[in-house]
Amino acid sequence: MVMLLSARVTLAIAVGACSIAANAAPTKQTPALTLFAATKAKALQGDADAQYKLGQMYAQGRGVAQDYGVAVSWFRRAAEQGYAVAQNSLGFMYYSGQGVAQDYYAAVSWFRRAAEQGYADAQNNLAVMYDQGRGVAQDYGVAVSWFRKAAEQGYAVAQNNLGVTYDKGQGVAQDYAAAVSWYRKAAEQGFSASQSRLAYMYYDGQGVAQDYAAAVSWYRKAAEQGDTRAQVNLGNMYFNGAGVAQDYVQAHKWFNLAGAGAKDAETRDNATKNRDIVAAKMQPAQIAEAQRLANEWRKK
Predict the structure, then answer these.
(1) CB atoms within 10 A of CB 24
(2) Whole-angstrom distance, CA of residue 262 vs CA of residue 218
(3) pTM for the complete prediction?
(4) Where are the alpha helices (DSSP H) in 205-247?
(5) Closest C-alpha among 94, 153, 97 to residue 121
(6) Phi-psi region of 137 (alpha: psi -120 to 50; beta: other; left: phi over 0)
(7) Closest by alpha carbon to 171, among 138, 199, 122?
(8) pLDDT at res. 21
(9) What pLDDT does residue 23 have?
(10) Cα angle, residue 174 at apex, residues 171 and 179 outer, rounded to 5°
């Protein structure tokens, strides 16, 4: 059995506020087209919030045909008024090359403008650029400082990323206890990558007393959200009876789900191999039950 350790956690660029505010969501009384018209009218009057929301509508195809180029133009209007959320979104468009030629330097510039206003999403994104050396000279120390600013505002993505820096000793002295602390903050907000990483810290006893039952609990939280690496690891815990009663049916179920849902070859291959190993130890009725449970889970 291969345990997927997730030793290298990706530092995720956060899109940031990519949905219309809850109080402006379409309802039966205000269908998407009506909301679009009302938002556009305000945007044309120079309302920065409306300009930003109109950009989101074009980016998402809500009430209008999706058009990234037009989305960029509306983000820019709001961003040039100093609207931090729009500055961050415009930076993301430059980062991803959506509606505009990909330009990491421009992305950094817009992320920085929003970050300096205290916008946590942008602080995280600017940190990622420093961490990866995209559009700016690579500087892990500066990356840590921006991750920390966002993490201290309670932003789960940044809390996870700050945990990664302590875990890897990148830009800061390696400190597993600090990594566990930041992973936990994000995990308790439901951030699956942190839940999975915290589970491994419990599994291996890094920065916290080894506790297989706690590892199982956190792997389960991430696995239930569809984190395929966590699903593989939860399957391994069931197969080995570590922190939970040994259960080949449950192990097969989680391996099966991970193999079908994984986007990366490593996770998919390990899940498939592990499923076949446990299947060789099962009766046909047990395999059928595992498949039934997997199908039920997919319907959730």
Answers:
(1) 15
(2) 19
(3) 0.89
(4) 212-224, 228-240
(5) 153
(6) beta
(7) 138
(8) 28
(9) 32
(10) 100
Is residue 3 a contact partner of residue 273, using CB atoms and an 8 Å limit?
no
Q: Which residues of the chain carry a pLDDT beneath 50?
A: 7-10, 15-29
Domains identified in the chain and CATH numbers:
27-117 (1.25.40.10)
CA distance 49 to 111: 18
- Distance from C-alpha of 78 to C-alpha of 39, rounded to nearest angstrom: 13
**89 within 8 A of 126, measured Cβ to Cβ:** no
Structure tokens that stand for 5 in this block:
């350790």
Q: Residue 14: its pLDDT value, please?
A: 53
Query: For residue 91, how many other CB atoms are within 10 A of its CB?
Result: 32
Cα–Cα nearest to 230, from 192, 256, 201 = 192
Q: DSSP assignment, residue 23?
A: G
Q: What is the pLDDT of residues 211-229, one digit of tens each?
A: 999 999 999 999 999 999 9
CA 106, CA 121: separation in Å to the nearest integer? 17
Describe the crossing of helices 176-187 and 192-204 by its angle, rounded to 10 degrees: 140
> Which amino acid, one-letter code, is at 136?
V
pLDDT number for residue 32:
72
**262 φψ region: left (φ > 0), alpha (ψ -120 to 50), beta (else):** beta
44-52 long-range contacts, CB within 8 A, separation 24+: 46/81, 48/77, 48/78, 48/81, 48/82, 48/83, 48/86, 49/78, 49/83, 51/75, 51/77, 51/78, 51/81, 51/83, 51/86, 52/78, 52/83, 52/85, 52/86, 52/89
